[in-house]
Amino acid sequence: MWRRRTTFVRRVLLVLDTIVSAGAFVLALFLRSWVGQAARDPAEVSGFVRRVVAWYGERPPPLAPDDYQLLLLALLPLWALSLQYTKSYDFRIAHRRIAWRYLQAVTMGVGMLILLAFLFKLTFISRSFVILFAALQLFALTLGRVLLLEAVRMARRRRGDAHRVVIVGTGSRAVEFAQQLSEASPIRLEIQGFVGVMGESSSPQARPRLGYVGSLDALLDRMPVDEVVFAVPGKSPDTFRDALSACDDRGVDVLLTLPPQVPASGKMELANVSGVNQPMIGLRRTPTAEAQLVGKRLLDILGGVVGIIFAGPIMIVAALAIKLDSKGPVLFKQVRAGRSGRKFTMYKFRSMVIDAEAKKAALMHLNEMGGPVFKIKRDPRITAVGRFIRKTSIDELPQFFNILMGDMSLVGPRPPLPSEVDDYEAWQRRRLSVKPGLTGLWQVSGRNQVDFDEWMQLDLQYIDRWSLWLDIKILLKTVPTVLFHKGAS
Fold first, then answer.
1. Domains of the chain
2. pTM for the complete prediction?
3. In which order are the strands placed within the sheet that holds 163-168?
């Protein structure tokens, strides 16, 4: 029950935050209109407002409320998305972390507002209104959440019925779980006590003790219990067959730890497979937020189109320079390993002589990169133009077409050669579980200055921490990395 309520509370918080954002929007519109009126009739307002108008430097133009009302309707789903992406609905974190997540959400929302204004030529949007709205939205969201959490804490301290939980297990893990459960639950929750298991090492903090698991049925008959949590790692569910049956007979909810053979990391779910009359446990190590994954693909399409448009003149000049500098094709096509090892053809501007692969074997002793990757700083196979386009990352620009075709993403692990994948250790192959990217944590963390194992760890870190906001941060960090040639060779 408490887990379902947690999901419900998060959804309610998301809706409330969206409503608060709309309120901040309306208030910003009112205040901005008031300041505009003050500029036309300064004698009717206070000296403070006159100083604000004077600081603005010019008379603010009047606003058209009808235009902003339509804009408000368009922004509501965008605010909901930005709040969802930054996980601002999490009520278990400290106030300062809430404020930081709200800052991220507001920044993303303002960015999408500016993008809308650019794409649809919304010339009526006032810069002063955008600044005022962003400040009001951040203040209102943060203050509203702090007040709401304090009100919830006060309500939980009041007497009343609570969700009653019994913990099966008396070890340190069971005690730790009980403490986290009490702190994280959005409802009033009471830990009734701990039930021991034969052969278990008990913690002195597992108090009160309510008996042993063999007599759980009698315990459930003796006292009201809403849920039983089996927090005994290393024990097979078969060990608790009678206890589980006792809970099932009495309609008591159960939360059961998984066997130690199941990896602790990753995302798990109880899966009902169509056509199979048996519940199964699903385990995923890849991102599971479907809405964010759709947002990632939309960002890829938008980024691919914008990249091709803005980089088009640079690509034309680079193609002419490559053609004039050395013999061979302008584009270098190479088979790379994509998501789950799928092979695709990756495009780059040719930066080496046409027989570069044939000369590779003679240079293997100069390899400066660990693992199966081959890299040397002063590679004699690189042409004069090739050295420049590598240093400036211009050679990567044709990969915008790979992104549009869906083989790559703007952000992700770099696509390896199939021959490199053959030499991967087992743990390194997990970097193939997502689409490869044009840029990633490796590129903004030093690139060729990072050794191979650290490179692989950065890719796995990206997969485990992935969010749309992380992609946006990596894209923003990529700009100075490319401009200042950090780590490129």
1. 2-157 (no CATH), 163-261 (3.40.50.720), 290-483 (no CATH)
2. 0.55
3. 209-212, 189-196, 163-168, 227-230, 253-256
